Amino acid sequence: WGDKGWGGKGWGDGKGAWGYSMPMPIYGMFPPMWGMKGKGKGKGKQLKVDDALKVWLGNVPESTTWKELQDHVNQHMKSKWVEIFRGKGKGTAAVVYATAEEASQAISGLNCQSLGGQSIVVDAWEKGTK
Predict the structure, then answer these.
(1) What angle do CA 51, 54, 60 make, to 5 degrees?
(2) What does the alpha-carbon distance between residue 76 and residue 54 come to, in Å, rounded to a whole number?
(3) What is the pLDDT of residue 82?
(4) How many Cβ atoms sit within 10 Å of the Cβ of residue 106?
(5) How far apart are CA 43 and CA 51, in angstroms?
(6) Nearest of 100, 72, 101 to residue 84 by alpha carbon
(7) Would the CA dihedral through 55, 90, 130, 36 be positive or negative?
(8) Are 27 and 60 spatial neighbours (Cβ–Cβ below 8 Å)?
(9) What local confidence, expressed as pLDDT, does residue 130 receive?
(10) Residues 6+ away with beta carbon under 8 Å from 75
């Protein structure tokens, strides 16, 4: 080995241990897997808000957009955030208000109102069991 590396010709001549050129890995084509964090499904984006500020809505028409729902609930009480659930939670939504008092008033004011030809159900938010 000595001070010249493999083959006795030094490190920088492009020759490997058996006289063949060893190409350097191109990381743009094949990124190393160590040190990288995966981007799996995880738990998704969950809003970290006190449950007392959230209101659950049911029987929301499937064709309703979040903006239409926000406009509807804002007629009664200004909301801070609105989300309509799709997939397993289809037909339901969540609305967040600034205070627990506003959320309570929204429950009594919005329950049984018509949205898209359907009577929506409004209740206090309850954290689901895992």
Answers:
(1) 135
(2) 15
(3) 95
(4) 20
(5) 18
(6) 72
(7) negative
(8) no
(9) 47
(10) none
